[in-house]
Amino acid sequence: MGFVNYILSNYVMVFELIGLLLMLRISAHISARMKRLTVAVVALLVVESVLFRVEKWTQTFEKLSVARPMLTATIYTLYPIILVLVMRITSNKEFSKKKLIIMLIPVLAGIPLYYSSQWTKIIFWYTEENDYVGGPLSRWPYVIFGMYTILFLVHNFVYFKKYSRLNRLVATFIISGSMVGVLLYLGLSFSSDYTALFTSALVLYYLCIYIHMSRIDPLTSLLNRQSYYQDMKSFDDRITCVVSVDMNELKYYNDTFGHEAGDKALKVVSKVLWENCGKGGTVYRVGGDEFVIFYENTSEYDVKANIDVMRSRMAKTGYICAYGYSMKDKQESIDAVLSEADAKMYADKAETKKIMLEKGVNIHYREDFENDKQQNV
Fold it and tell me: Domain boundaries in the chain?
C-alpha cells in the first residue's frame, strides 16, 4: 500500500480535492470562515480515505491486528463529523460552540460504543482469524449517519428558504444523490470507500454555494442587482406585484456619522424588509439605498398588509423608508410595473417629509445617534 498506489487508486478524489482547494484561492464571494471550514472538510476526507485504505490493508492479515477495530471505529466517527462541518459552511456567524456541541452529541455518544465494540460486541467485532462479525447494533453507525443526512437536508432547506426554490432543488439533488449511492452500496452489500462519492458531492455543493453567494449583496445579505435582473426574466409569469422601497436620508447618516453608520443603517433596514416582507416576497438591493420586492402569487390585500407590517417594524428602528407598489398583469412588463411602483414610492417619500416638517420633526432624527453626537462634542 504505497503512496503511488494510493494516488493511482484515488486519483479522481485527489484531483477533485486539489481542484477545490485551488478554487478556494480564487473565490471572491466566499468568506474566510467558509474557506477555513471547507479546508477542514477536505482534510477530514483525506484522513478518512487514508484510514480506509489502511483498514483494508489490515484485512489481508492472517491474524487480527488491534489496529483494525480502532480504524473501523474512527471511520464510523468521521463521517457524521464531516457532515456537521459542511453544515457549518452555510451557517451564520452566530452558530455558537454550544450549538455545535449539541449537534455533535450523537457522535460523541457513539465514540465509546465504537472503540469498545471489539470487547462488548455491541456494534461489531473481529474474530482472531480477522473476520468481521456484526453485533446487535451493527446498523447503528448508518442510522446516525442517516439522521445527520436528514438534518443536513433540513438545514439547507432553511438556508435557501428565502432565496429560490431552484437553489433548494439543486442542493437537495447533490445531497440526496450522494446518499442514494451509499444506500445502493449498502443494499448490494458492496464494500466501498464513500470518500470519492462525498468528494464529488462536496465539489458540486461548494460550486452551488459559490454561485449562490455571487447572487448575494455582501453588505446586507439580500439578493443583489444581478439576481434582480435574472429573476425578473426567469419568474416574469409568476410575479404578481412589485414593491419599490427607498430608505430616507442615507446620505445624512453617511455625512454626519460616517459610512460605518450608513452601513449599519442599511443592514438594519435590510433585515426588517427581509424578515417582514411575507411568505411570497423576495427582497433585492438594487442600489445604494434602493430596494425592490417581488411578490409571487400574492394578492393585493396581502401585499398591503405586508407593507404595513414593514412600516411598523421599521418605525421601531428609528429609520424611515418610503414604499410604493404596483400589481402586475401577465401582459405587463416588470419595467412598466416598477415605474408605477417608483412613482408611488416617491409620492410616499414626499408625503412623509411634508408630514414631519409640519410636525417640526427632522426626518433623520435618531435619539441614539444624537446622543453619540453630543458625547463627541
Answer: 3-213, 225-376
Q: What is the pLDDT of residues 303-356, one digit of tens each?
A: 999 999 999 999 898 888 999 999 998 888 899 999 999 999 999 988 888 877
Cβ within 8 Å of residue 223, ≥6 positions away: 163, 215, 216, 217, 231, 282, 283, 284, 285
Grid coordinates given for 317: 428602528
Burial of 357 (0-12, 13-18, 19+ CB in 10 A): exposed
| DSSP assigned state of 332 | S
- pTM above the 0.85 mark? no
CATH code of domain 225-376: 3.30.70.270
Question: In degrees to the nearest 10, what's the CA dihedral of 271, 277, 283, 288?
Answer: -50
Q: Facing residues of 167 across strands?
A: none
Residue 342's nearest CA partner among 329, 364, 323 is 323
Residues of the chain with pLDDT under 70: 1, 92-97, 164-165, 182-183, 185-194, 360-377
